[in-house]
Amino acid sequence: MENQVTAHEVAKLAGVSQSSVSRVFTKGASVSEKTREKVLKAAEQLGYRPNEYARSLIKRKSSLIGLVMKGVSNPYYPHAVKKFTSELKKLGYSVLLIDTDDVELQMQDIDALLSYHVAGVVIMDATASFQTAEMLRRFRIPAVLFNRVVPGTGLHSVSCENESAAREIARLLIARGCKSFTYVGGREGASTHIERLKGFTEELENHGFGCQVLPGDFTYGTGYRNGAEMIESGRLTDAVFAVTDLMAYGIYDAFRDRGVRVPEQVKLVGFDDIEMSSWSSYNLSTYAHPVDRMVALSIELLLDPEQSHAEGEVHYLTGEMRLRGTT
Amino acid sequence: MENQVTAHEVAKLAGVSQSSVSRVFTKGASVSEKTREKVLKAAEQLGYRPNEYARSLIKRKSSLIGLVMKGVSNPYYPHAVKKFTSELKKLGYSVLLIDTDDVELQMQDIDALLSYHVAGVVIMDATASFQTAEMLRRFRIPAVLFNRVVPGTGLHSVSCENESAAREIARLLIARGCKSFTYVGGREGASTHIERLKGFTEELENHGFGCQVLPGDFTYGTGYRNGAEMIESGRLTDAVFAVTDLMAYGIYDAFRDRGVRVPEQVKLVGFDDIEMSSWSSYNLSTYAHPVDRMVALSIELLLDPEQSHAEGEVHYLTGEMRLRGTT
DNA sequence: TTCAAAATTGCATACGTATGCAAATTCCTA
DNA sequence: TAGGAATTTGCATACGTATGCAATTTTGAA
Predict the structure, then answer these.
(1) Which of A142, B303, B187 is nearest to B197 (CA)?
(2) Which of A54, A189, B80, B277 has its CA 20 to 30 Å from the CA of residue B252?
(3) Out of A20-24, A145-149, B249-253, which region has the weakest mean confidence (pLDDT)?
């Protein structure tokens, strides 16, 4: 950085003023074709890049978007992250990554977002939501909760049609002739868990069926334990709906290890459609998130000033059922 | 950002000069306890955060580290990413994420790294290495290749003891009584592939054994196809070593689908020890990367001026064998 | 060819912070 | 209490770029 090439040096070499150099690199500014060529040639020769710090400072506008996640619990997120970075890059934004579950660092993370005056924040981590949301509101930084809904924060949410998807799954299992049902859930309070539980149990009730509800936390391990316990306590049902694919794998493996066959004895459905679900070891029926559309909408909400300063709303997008071997 | 609170406003409220405010937020600067308190109080009241753009500009030093990855092919990387962000945050750095496999955006990605004059770059993506490495050298930006070695770039590499680990795996399989061997590889040219292949085949040769080598690309799908083909062409061996866990899963599933039992008929070993390997559906024997130490060393190399400007070296760290159900 | 309109250019300044320097204050010792 | 050393403070400036304004050049029509 000490040997930084500046617009002044480019200007000198090109025989123009610093302003002209700046205008060449500022879209929407007017420069003659002749100077543009001279400047670009000199710039290439020197390896000039506009200094983003000076630029953001003078424009009073950041080109960074904060991406807040916590750990790597679910392979579903890396896909979304990649989509975000690609799409944002096309719009000229870069991504500031916040990814830790160290509570002591959380304040530092928020500081970073504020120090860089990020143009917006995407939150993929529920636990950070409350503290962070407050700060974001205070500093009027546009924010979107991705795949979660946290009532009362006033932030925009972009989520999947969890409830109606869960209803669809219920109807599917009924149509397959199942008579008894289990729902294995996620962390208490998580909107994905709440909404999927609601849709599933209500739809079953509409058709005159009850539902066994088991607690979970979105992890494979807990899925496995739930699956094992269902068998050992004799509470196995005709159908199991797991709140995420990851938990479904655990349940499936617990069944397989104990000789319970899927789908012959039990039908199993997950949620997310992460890559592994199409692997032959699981071949899991599941509900696919409309990830690309969710990302696109999130970005739109963040960057449209109309939207981003409006009171937060919840946007539910429709995904698609993927029928595979477990039903 | 338009309603940015500046050091001047804090200074006015606290009744001191802007310089004093700056000194309170600059570590190593000398301020009296009295002014510090006044300033901190005023700062909190106004919600002041030093503007990182102005700061980086005047100090001519970035607090950003670029993290370059490509897609999400291997669940191994998210763990490393998280570790990087946490450790870097402790040192006062934030992470600029580059994550795309869109070739057209690659130049823009490099521009971003240069525009922000990142203090260093961690590269987790082999394909970007060549183009990017050249740029990084030209602009004297410290860089570390993580889990890959690309000869001739002059960049530091932090990697796992692939070769000796592969030898250890060969000896293990021999000790288990295997007589015929297969190696299923990764993308041609990838250092992890080359080194593991070399260690494995050489050690087998030392003991008088040959080895069938099958081409691969690090993906589950190709693992599966290789596994299937081995059976269908009658070239199944006593032991199979896959270049990554991900490929091992594919091979395993192909075997399972065709009634070939692991480990009774075939012993199977992977590499990486990602979380799934301990799941009961695979319970895969594998070699665990020393991820934490690899990350720590990478950061050390990046931030130590002595190291970062020295000619790049390859640093191999020792991991640990994880014996599970497939051997 | 001439002259007004349009386009382009350079000058000067501002963004918010860090820091060398000199002035002001505090501290310590005699 | 005096007076010199040490600490703290404010002033002024610089970092590299974008942009309003005025000066200059180019364009186009008569």
Answers:
(1) B187
(2) B80
(3) A145-149
* Interstrand relation of B267-269 and B239-242 (parallel, antiparallel or unpaired): parallel
What are the tokens at B323? 């014996």
- The residue of chain B with its CA nearest to that of A107 is B89
B8: its two tokens: 């001047």
Distance in angstroms (rounded) separating the CA atoms of residues B255 and B266:
9
Per-residue pLDDT at A238: 96
Q: Is B263 within 8 Å of B326 (Cβ atoms)?
A: yes
- CA-to-CA distance for B136 and B129, rounded, in angstroms? 10
Neighbours of A185 (CB within 10 A): 25
The predicted pLDDT at position A152 comes to: 79
pLDDT band at B230 (very low <50, low <70, confident <90, very high): very high
* Cα B124 from Cα A98, distance rounded (Å): 18
**Full set of structural domains in chain B with CATH:** 7-58 (1.10.260.40), 62-160+291-321 (3.40.50.2300), 162-288 (3.40.50.2300)
Residue B6 host element (H or E)? none
**Nearest-neighbour CA in chain A from B133: distance (Å):** 15
**Euclidean distance between CA atoms B139 and A165, whole angstroms:** 51
What whole-number distance in Å separates Cα of residue A177 and Cα of residue B232?
A: 38
* Closest-CA residue of chain A to B66: A96
- Which residues is B322 bridged to in the sheet? B286
Which residues of chain A are within 8 Å of residue B85 when distances are taken between CB atoms? 97-100
Q: Which secondary-structure segment (H or E) carries A197?
A: helix A191-206
What is each CA distance from B268 to B173, B176, B233, B308, in whole angstroms?
A: 9, 11, 19, 40
The answer to whether residue A259 neighbours chain B at the CB level (below 8 Å) is no
> Does A2 contact chain B (CB < 8 Å)?
yes
Q: Which two tokens stand for residue A262?
A: 């899927």
- The whole-angstrom separation of Cα A37 and Cα A16 is 11
DSSP helix/strand/coil, A314: strand
Give the pLDDT confidence score for residue A102 in this predicted structure: 78
B57 vs A: CB within 8 A: yes
